[in-house]
Amino acid sequence: MSILHTIVVANADELAAAKHTVPANELLREIAELPPAPGFTETLRAKRPAVIAELKSASPSKGVIREPLDCATLARELESAGAAALSVLTEPHYFHGSLENLRVVRANCSLPLLRKEFIVDEYQILQARAAGASAVLLIAALLDDALLNDLTEVAHAIGLEVLLEAHTEEELDRALATQADAIGVNARDLHTFQTSLEVVKSLIRRIPQNRTPVAESALHTREDLLALQDAGAVGFLMGEVLMRAAHPSEKLRELLIK
User: Fold this and answer.
1) Rounded to whole angstroms, how far apart are CA atoms 149 and 223?
2) What are phi and psi of 166, to 5 degrees?
3) Domain around 213
4) Which residues are the active-site residues?
5) Domains of the chain: total
6) Where residue 146 sits, what CATH number does that domain have?
7) In angstroms, what is the C-alpha Rg of the chain?
8) What is the C-alpha separation between 26 and 33, in angstroms, rounded?
9) Could you read off the pLDDT of 52-106 as tens digits, one per residue?
10) H-only helix segments in the chain
């Protein structure tokens, strides 16, 4: 079983319990009262370079990265430092995240927020919107074409955008065939955990600019960022390099300085 499916199985009980505790109809009532979410892709296209700063405590490949994770302070400081958007890990077992982290971030900044989660069910999309997200991550390696399209439709129906992640040419072709708003290329192979920015460069070049190409993972320096911008990336999802820094906002300013 791949790590993707291991994570989904590990969270199955929590997902079932959440559906019982807060039914989908209740989430939909909450969503109906919310103002429009800040535009995710619109903001990325308006800011160059557009860094999506990721708040995460841990990962399966790297272990603990930053604990405790002061989401309120990080949200305020990263917004002030020039982040275009924030990505919030909500998976609890392998990334030590939570939906509460997303709510806290929403309460402390005005940026568009991406719910970074292993989404397999439309209920998770409703949760994201209710907790303050502007966009959700869908992973091509985890979902078949029918589910990719269905979940994208659900997201759009409640005012969310979709960042659809690919890692191979085949996954990219599938992503481009959907109505996803942004197309991400993950440098990390989620089966082997090996990373390659050359893979990202190659695939990013195939994504039309109106689909908002996003480079994900293994970005550590301003040179990495600029090289991928030259290849056509509009957004840059950066997590570990920021979360390992003593002062993430200062590190972000270093990466953005012209």
Assistant:
1) 35
2) -130, 160
3) 3-256
4) 54, 56, 116, 165, 186, 216-217
5) 1
6) 3.20.20.70
7) 17
8) 11
9) 999 999 998 889 999 999 999 999 999 999 999 999 999 999 999 999 999 999 9
10) 3-10, 12-21, 24-32, 40-46, 71-81, 99-108, 122-130, 145-157, 169-176, 197-204, 222-231, 240-243, 248-256
